[in-house]
Design brief:
Blueprint: H1 15-27, H2 33-52, H3 63-75, H4 80-99, H5 126-134, H6 141-156, H7 160-164, E1 171-172, E2 175-179, E3 185-189, H8 192-204, H9 227-240, H10 249-264, H11 267-274, H12 279-285, H13 290-300, H14 302-305, H15 308-313
Antiparallel strand pairs: 1-2, 2-3
Helix pairs in contact: 1-2, 2-4, 3-4, 6-8, 6-10, 11-12
């Protein structure tokens, strides 16, 4: 029996599943392992659906069939976010089939999924976050490592995957080079406090990491720190340091963006720092506090600064 990577051995025997495997192999050359794994999961569901319908020809993947697939997924309770991810995987796969000459055009363009509810994390209060970050640690190598992770998250607004993937060579004085979504590199500044925390961590990193390990952040066994380990440490630190709310990497990134945007009002700069391809993403991601906006408007807009008495004395108000 052929080996399958779609979690169901029989799938690898169908022409559609074989095309999926070829697509995933091509995708792996430029996408992250997490992206490949997510697409593998989504397209495995498509393969199971087509098998149940006795559809084996990739050329039969038309709009009607794919709409039925997404409808079946929705009927079994799949959330809007998951349905949107299913659609994205279908679209990428269909693009691949078009390039391979299997399909004439992409049939996914006419498909729509339910609108996703907005679940933006609430940024941590500036003062509360400052107290959290300034809480002394125990001075151990792990304590210094954790402090460097916290400071770098908040200083540079990194994604979890970006921070976990950092190597020693990515640090460049007051900047850090990261590889963002789609393999797009960018350089972001590192603040003074984060620089200090990183210097302290690098001074004791050799206690945990072998000389051959290039990962910036390592665990007790000297190997690269994984995503789950970083998430777990942040949750533990929020409890240990008395932060009265759950803390996770995305919330630190959101706090970085919100606090910076409130201070600078420079949406374009924040877009570059976050590594967003579209400004609309930044506008949704970085919700400004409404009171802050109202105060800025009252202080700056010429029509907001003029009161009723000013309007009465205006030359245009005279009969």
């Amino acid at each position: 029996m052929a080996n399958s990577t779609l979690d169901e051995p029989s799938l690898a025997e169908t022409p559609i599943a074989k095309r999926v495997e070829a697509f995933l192999a091509a995708l792996a050359s430029h996408a992250s392992p997490a992206t490949v794994a997510a697409y593998r999961h989504d397209l495995a569901a498509l393969c199971r659906f087509t098998e149940r319908r006795d559809v084996t020809d990739p050329a039969a993947l038309d709009t009607a069939l794919l709409r039925a697939f997404l409808g079946a997924e929705r009927s079994r309770g799949l959330a809007p976010r998951s349905l949107a991810r299913r659609r994205a995987a279908l679209s990428r796969f269909a693009d691949y089939l078009v390039k391979q000459g299997v399909l004439v055009d992409n049939p996914v363009g006419l498909l729509r999924t339910p609108k996703q509810p907005s679940h933006l994390p609430r940024p941590v209060d500036v003062d509360a976050l400052a107290r959290f970050l300034d809480t002394p640690h125990d001075g151990s190598p792990l304590g210094m490592r954790d402090q460097a992770i916290l400071e770098l998250f908040y200083s540079s607004g990194l994604r979890l995957a970006e921070l976990a993937a950092l190597d020693l060579g990515d640090l460049q004085n007051s900047r850090v080079r990261v590889i963002g979504k789609g393999g797009k590199p960018r350089q972001v500044p590192v603040g003074r406090r984060a620089q200090q925390a990183l210097a302290e961590w690098l001074g004791c990193r050799s206690v945990l990491a072998p000389i051959t390990e290039q990962a910036l952040f390592v665990g007790q066994r000297g190997q690269r720190l994984g995503h789950r380990a970083i998430q777990k440490r942040l949750a533990q630190l929020s409890l240990a340091r008395g932060l009265p709310e759950h803390l996770h990497p995305h919330r630190l990134r959101h706090s970085f963006a919100s606090h910076l945007l409130e201070s600078s009002q420079d949406l374009r700069a924040v877009q570059e720092l976050l590594g967003h391809a579209n400004l609309s993403t930044t506008q949704i991601y970085t919700r400004l506090d409404w009171q802050h906006l109202a105060t800025s408007y009252d202080a700056a807009h010429p029509r907001a600064k003029r009161g009723p008495s000013d309007r009465k004395n205006s030359p245009r108000s005279k009969p």
